[in-house]
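Exercise 7 asks you to align residues with tokens for two separate proteins.
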Amino acid sequence: MSEEVSGVPAGTRASPRLAILLAMAMFVLVVDTSLMNVSISAVVEDLDTTVSGVQSAIALEALVSAAFILIGSKVGDLIGRKRAYLLGLSGYAIGASAMVLAQSLTAIIIFWAVVGGIGASLLLPAMQSLIHGNFDGAAQTKAYAMVGAAAALAAAVGPLLGGVITTYLSWRVGFLLEVAVIAVVFVGRGLIHDVPYSGSRRVDVVGAIFSVLGMGGVVLGILVWQEGGEFVGLLLGIGVVGLAAFGYWLVRRKRRGEPTLIDPALFSSAVFKLGISQQMLQQIALGGIMIALPIYLQMVLEYNAMGAGLTLAPLSLSMFGMAILAEKKAGRRRPSSIIRWGFVLLTTGLVVLIPIVPRAGSGWALVAPLILAGVGLGLLVSQLNNYTLSPISQERVSEAAGVNSAAGSFGLSFGLAFAGAILLATLSFTFTNQAESSTVLQPAQQEQVADALEHDAEVMSNTALEDLLAKQPPEVREEIVRINTEARPIALQVALGIPILAGLVGLVNSFRMVRLKDPPSPGDLDVTD
């Protein structure tokens, strides 16, 4: 690959250590959310807050990343991809440091969710651009695979690490370790060769506003709905209109020959369009799984963080193992075919969970389907980034990486917010309906149950509920606990419908991918004309 295409100075080869450092950065990015997911109950207790509040912070972090990631990719063009990468790492370091010191949910929202989310919006596209520009040929494919494997490894050890640390030390220690890893990555910044940008340096301000309103409005609307707030329809409407206006604005600016936040010509590549769609669907599925299952395990089976992490380990470890194996053993197998099998296994594993959930007395019952789903996710992780960005020229790689990262971040935030909201809404609906139809509870007691549910029933395990109802007659206490026991598995089953639906749509898309020719080598296809 030539200097013009690769962006690497002539005669310079990127050190293999750079791939390791980039993989470490990706590791921190992914493990951060995993730590929060398995530590929900500990954070709730320590900060005296609610499950839905912590869940909202988790989804907000992904939302901020998704909303600003296209702007982040353009910032990388203007100030340099290396500088954007280091600024993004700094944002994450601030967020992790805040988690170590936070004494309230407000601090977590401001520094971890918002500042850390903005850091991710700079870090993700810059990282993919630096891989594209610092490596070529087989080294580039291996670098992408290594970063993908790091993401899978983070998903694997995140729940376990978070569980062990939260149970035996404190959930804050995990975030302190993140700060240490980021410091190591900073030490190796001299290995990075910046990737020059030769395109227009004018900023599409209106396009940036539309992108934030579009992606932010949709997920924010879901978060407000989850919290029982008002103007949900208005927020969702703003999001949908913002996305439509963003697309129209890009096409209009392109026709006039004016600079755009992202070049709509990127979407002339069928490979790129399908790649980012599949990226988003994979992340919707992952986000849905990683918010619904930890809540269920901690609030229904009453596992501590350690137990929740161990139960999720089959999903995470199989995902990591398959990501590594697929990169080494793919051989001449078509990426599109591997991706299709990924969605088949992911969806099958989730569907098998549905009848198991109401009968599961412990996490052991979930092991086999979680392994199946994890293998599917590992196949997807091993292929999607390289498949999506392979046809993109160096001049447009930052924009393309931004779109690819935006699709993933939007999918993750949507999956986290929507699956979590569906779980809590179903729980509320089922609990209230069963209470109202109960022949044991009197009307006044039914109203009391409904009022309690509005405030904090979503954090009530059966043990906590029994303590709360200690002064009630035995028959009332037993009836409410029975309703609680029956309502929660139903809520999880409905919430799992979100990742299942994403998997099914991804499977349908994969058949379209198989009909396309395999993508050319990186940089061979210029989609900027």
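Second protein for Exercise 7:
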Amino acid sequence: MGALQITVGVIGVAISIVAWIMFVAGVWRMVRIIRLGQPDSTRNGPFGPRFATLIKEFAAHTRMNKFRHVGPWHWMVMWGFLIGSLAWFEAYGETFDPHFHWPVIGAWQPWLLLTELLGLGTVIGGIALAIIRQRNHPRRADRQSRFAGSNFGQAYFVEAVVVIEGLGILGVKAFKISSGIEDPSWWSSFATKGIAEILPASTAAVTITALVKLLSGMVWLYVVGRNLTMGVAWHRFSAFFNIYFKREDGGGVALGPLKPMMSEGKPLDFEEADPEKDVFGAGRIEDFSWKGWLDFTTCTECGRCQSQCPAWNTGKPLSPKLVITQLRDHAYAKAPYLLAGGKKDMAGDEVGLTGDNPYAGIDVLAIAEAERPLVGDDGGVIDPDVLWSCTTCGACVEQCPVDIEHVDHIVDMRRYQVMIESNFPTELNGMFKNLENKGNPWGQNAKDRLAWAEDLDFEVPVFEGELGDTEYLFWVGCAGAFEDRAKKTTRAVAELLNIAGVKYTVLGPEESCSGDPARRAGNEFLFQMLAQQNVEVLNSVFEDRDPLERKIVVTCAHCFNTLANEYPQLGGQYEVVHHTQLLNRLVREKRLVPVAPIADDVTYHDPCYLGRHNKIYEAPRELVGASGAQFREMPRHGDRSMCCGAGGARMWMEEKIGKRINLDRVDEALGTAPSKIATGCPFCRVMLTDGVTARQNDGLAGEKVEVVDVSQLLLEAVKRRPQPVPVAGAPEVEAEPESADVSTDKVATGTPLPDEDE
């Protein structure tokens, strides 16, 4: 051990002590800050399923690989960080003694091969990620960059450290070989042995390279320890906890049901709630649960959520990524005030800190941050236009690789704005009043709920006190009962069930709105009122049946999600099926037999609340195929399907900013040259029909293009239509020429897709 080694080793240790102190202090501060959030005991277990999900998601990169061109490179970097840390710690010994290696495994050929692969993987992976970031730089037009709004300096710092660490691992190994310290086999050191041949023999170089390897990590520890909002770095640690504590302990993402309204870690009981003590949604950053604070901390700013968001892609101010990062920055800026005991009452007066100088010792910036409203157009953390642009489609949650629960957080903020501040878009006033007074958002009379059944050539059975041998309760829904276009779906389903001999009944005037629009708009109180009323009615209808035999079929994707996933929160346990699922089963059982294939080119739009929220993708497509139609898939489909724009109660709000979402989706559908656009949700049908009509008026769509429900396609195929009989002497009618089909990969339609989504 020479003077150089002693000097270098001491420098490395001294810097390490400072870096580790800074890092551990940062971890401690972060834990204290995250604990400022509201309690949430629902995340505590069970351990087995949660741990299994954690292992699957990080080891197999199941969610990261949703972007396949990114997944492999990030996988290399991740394992390089986790296992490569052993090689990094080895540098402490190598700075003092170039011959140092770990006992037992240090000279083991498989270990040398592993370090070779880890070193190469981190270098290649880090460079690849930097190239991907450059190729998707915000300089690109049309909001195509998912990195718009991300902190590029922090990202490049992390990627540089990754590459330097990898080069350090390879460099130390290569100099050891060139200096004769090690002589590994070619198969275990295929890259470093080649590099060693052009390097000089120098034990000093081993020491210096080991120091570079060590200091790259020390600089990283010091920098992130001082910057708790550097999510692109901290996710290396926090992502494991965020995945483990995700809302669904079975491994699913936070879609389907909304998180119940919580206060002090328990579902809020409106009969006993006190606005002075209980938390009504999220009106201040401390109203979010500790898991929400962990979400904010974990955001990597990768922008996958942003790239999939229909609001962002149509020029709205909402970016799910920026919502999370803005909440994160506000939370950590306000944290010193909260840690000191600061708290304000409903009127905004300080009640947590007392004395002549209550703010003594608190950072003035934290005090200023405490004065900012969470939502507001005058200095608020989140702009109201951002909050109300969300369609709750769930594309952000579906794509997030670290399981951030964007939709739950957005709805929590809406809840506070609606129930405490009474601050929401004026268009929702009418919808709320109609729901409260008439039990439906259209404000129609309950006695008209059976108007859709008029003129049918069979009798629609209405529940009259006993189910008897009825198999299904047909939940018609408000749209299916009152909206003219949706009525066609209701009639088609009723007719198909009649043809198949399925015994069903409807509630008629006893049915009320499921409450979905109220809940997504933030009016949790109104939702609870409607839902409890419906649960009471449904439980009385099914009172003699086991919960597993309480079967309901629905045509509305939003009703389906609410009845199946949210009514159990209120004591309503039912087996709920979507009409596409039931009809598909009836076709498979030969109870519905298509006999007249339809000669149409059909593209299918996945409703968000049927697809992403409930993973029902195949049944509607199989029905389109069963009808005999020529099926054409849109570029954005399945779990990446584009929203129609109606969700999150947006159907009742004016769309005043940017391009209309339904027009963007219709443009994409028209790019497949369809004669029909099929869907499985009345909300989607309304929005898409409006979009098609607008494009027809613009001369951009054929007059015969129409939007239908898949049940109508099936009904047309099941009912054999009589062929026209030619009349002697009548002139032949020349068939209209078919429109030329242009593939969407040749002519772009709708919002341009980022490269990684094509």
